[in-house]
Write a structure and sequence with these properties.
The modification 4-aspartylphosphate is found at residues 53, 181. There is one protein chain. This protein is α/β, with parallel strands linked by helices. Helix content is 47%, strand content 17%. The protein is built from 19 helices and 22 strands. Helix 1 packs across helix 5 (109-120), helix 15 (368-456) runs antiparallel to helix 16 and helix 16 runs parallel beside helix 19 (614-624). The longest helix has 89 residues, at 368-456. The chain is elongated. The relative contact order is 0.05.
Length: 651
């Protein structure tokens, strides 16, 4: 669907000129002559771009812009202000009010159209799936003959009557191919092709050059100018179809990099000089090349404008203030790369201007064509640099993506190898656990049994020294048996498949507490367990967690007159935090991280005996569930162990 533009101007000539330019570019137009009609159009809507004259008989364009921006859904409508009031202060007012562009009169209709499409973010041909061919010829008859030839073959045809118009159309619409006449008023076909080849955005566009000349030298000249194919008008026009298909078939494939903008697209030049006559001359010269020219009378005005709106090139009059203005421009990071051309009357000022920071110098005596050529060359140089930078960035991004993919692939391969090795290690661990269970328990049981039998034997009384030694052997065998059992429990907690289901942790905690009370019937401990405590977890591992933490709390409250142990939880069911709290010996502040290391002890074995494996087992069991555990406490003031058991992911 073609975009629609609202054109508001009290001049019939301006309205019709813009209407024809926009319509030729594929826009639908809505025309208004007054502020009242514009307000009615605002309410009716249905437009994508608004071109507003600043001076209307019954309204001010800037006020209309404010009204448009205040309407719901119109905050980002593309808006161009058009005005004969082109002073910097007027431009700044319009831009700061919310205009996307401010174009001074006299204006170039092609610039207004191209800039509007640029602001819309369209390339002009995206909606048409057909390959687009631009025909540039000063003969209306020949343009129409080519249109009638190409459209039945599935091409979309654009036309231009001159080389200058053709370049602007190519910049705006980005055709797939260009057919250009060799001899035309203004710039000829060879010049058009040379300029296309110098444009970073258009240089790969296939070009066919047509001419009525039939000499060999002309053909060589045209091909050396950069044409992809040469066609004589005297030949059968079917040759055009064949050569067009051939150049499109072999056209270079582009990197998928966003094009910065065409050299011949909507360009803006800031002209800075206190000489009004020279400012007008520069404006006339550069507008002939399709540039919108903004005039500023001083460096301060120029910097104010550049802060509000970027430009493609700066032309600065060489005078006493020029060096300071140039330095100030080059100091601002956002605009320092904007090409700056100094223009003056002195013949030997080139080195001085370049030393001041200018990119180029033009003598006024060299004429208008020289100024145009220098401005065009500087813009082309900047665009080429920008294109090279963006290509480098794209290639770097691709290399980083490729490196990321390689790293991800290597990581996956490494992870697979580690998983395979881990599975092998687990099988080895299971075999070792079986060996420990069978091979170590038996000898320990024999040692313990013989030591116990010798201690109980009455036939041959033992000396005090021998009895002491046997008691130590018996106790060491018992500790070794306890350590083996603890290691086996740790191994079981570290492997095997989790069998998750919703368990009643309140009931499980009471079961563990009753077992503890049965082992120490004479000891009184106050136990408190929260009601309705549940978890989505492996019941066997949760029992291991509770047994170790509750036994740990009982052990470290032995020297407390009124021991108290609490099992509870907090938070929502799916994010619950469970805790076991006691009022026992606690542990030194800052040592909590050491509690879960194997065989780590923060108290002496004589005061609080144990294997040093229990909390490590708890840590492994919590980690198997994807949870976390940490401890809080102070020496002599009890301890609290917090842990989480996140629910398993649904498969």
């Amino acid at each position: 669907m073609s975009p629609t533009v609202l054109i508001v101007d009290d001049s019939l000539t301006v309205r019709m000129n813009l209407h024809e330019a926009f319509e030729a570019d594929g826009f639908t137009t809505i025309l208004c002559a007054t502020g009242e009609q514009a307000r009615a159009a605002f309410v009716a809507g249905g437009f994508d771009v608004a071109v507003l004259d600043v001076l209307l008989p019954d309204a001010d364009g800037v006020d209309l812009l404010r009204e448009l921006r205040s309407l719901p859904g119109r905050e980002h409508t593309v808006t161009v202000l058009l005005s004969s009031e082109a002073e910097v202060a007027d431009r700044l007012l319009g831009l700061r009010t919310g205009a996307d562009e401010y174009v001074g009169k006299p204006y170039d209709a092609g610039y207004v159209v191209a800039r509007s499409r640029q602001l819309l973010g369209e390339d002009g041909a995206a909606a048409d799936p057909r390959p687009t061919v631009l025909v540039i010829d000063d003969s209306l008859t020949f343009r129409e003959r080519l249109r009638q030839l190409l459209e039945p073959e599935g091409y979309a045809v654009l036309t231009a009557a001159s080389g200058e118009e053709g370049l602007r159309t190519a910049a705006d619409r980005r055709p797939h191919a260009v057919i250009v006449d060799g001899i035309m008023p203004g710039i000829d076909g060879a010049t058009v092709i040379r300029r296309l080849r110098l444009d970073p955005a258009l240089r790969d566009t296939p070009c066919l050059l047509m001419t009525a000349a039939d000499d060999y030298a002309t053909e060589v000249q045209m091909l050396e100018a950069g044409a992809d194919a040469f066609v004589r008008k005297q030949q059968d026009l079917a040759v055009v179809l064949a050569k067009l298909a051939a150049v499109l078939r072999t056209s270079a494939e582009q990197l998928p990099i966003e094009v910065i903008g065409s050299l011949h697209g909507p360009g803006k030049v800031l002209a800075v000089t206190a000489d009004r006559r020279r400012l007008d001359e520069w404006g006339d010269v550069l507008r002939a090349d399709g540039y919108d020219v903004v005039g500023a009378g001083s460096g301060d005005e120029a910097l104010d404008l550049l802060a509000a709106q970027p430009v493609d090139c700066i032309v600065l009059g060489f005078d006493d203030d020029a060096r300071r203005t140039c330095a100030r421009v080059k100091e601002v990071p956002q605009i320092r790369d904007t090409p700056l051309v100094m223009a003056g009357d002195e013949d030997d000022a080139l080195l001085e201007c370049l030393a001041a920071g200018a990119d180029d110098y033009v003598r006024s005596a060299d004429g208008a064509d020289t100024l145009r050529a220098h401005v065009r060359a500087q813009i082309r140089r900047k665009q080429s640099l920008d294109e090279s930078r963006r290509i480098r960035e794209e290639l770097m991004r691709r290399e980083l993506d490729a490196a990321g993919e390689r790293a991800a692939r290597q990581l996956a391969e490494t992870r697979a190898a580690l998983v395979e090795e881990l599975e092998w290690r687990n099988r080895e661990l299971e075999a070792f656990s079986g060996s420990v269970s069978h091979d170590l328990r038996g000898p320990l049981q024999v040692i313990s049994s013989y030591a116990e039998a010798m201690l109980d034997e009455d036939d041959e009384p033992l000396s005090a020294q021998v009895r002491h030694r046997l008691e130590r052997i018996h106790a060491a065998a018992g500790r070794m048996a306890d350590l083996v059992e603890s290691l086996l429990i740790l191994a079981r907690a570290s492997r095997g498949e989790l069998r998750r289901h919703r368990i009643d942790m309140t009931e499980l905690a009471w079961q563990v507490i009753r077992e503890v009370e049965a082992r120490e019937p004479g000891r009184e401990i106050e136990f408190r367990v929260d009601e309705a405590m549940t978890a989505d977890a492996d019941e066997g591992l949760v029992r291991v967690i509770l047994e170790n933490l509750v036994n740990n709390a009982c052990k470290f409250t032995r020297r407390i007159e009124k021991p108290s142990i609490e099992v509870g939880w907090s938070g929502p069911h799916d994010e619950a935090r469970y805790h076991i709290r006691d009022n026992g010996a606690g542990f030194p502040a800052g040592k909590a991280g050491e509690l879960f290391r194997p065989f780590a002890r923060l108290h002496s074995a004589e005061d609080f005996p144990g294997t040093g494996i229990g909390l490590t087992t708890v840590h492994r069991a919590v980690e198997r569930h994807g949870g976390e555990i940490h401890a809080e406490g102070e020496d002599g003031r009890g301890a609290t162990f917090w842990f989480t058991l996140p629910p398993g992911r649904a498969s």
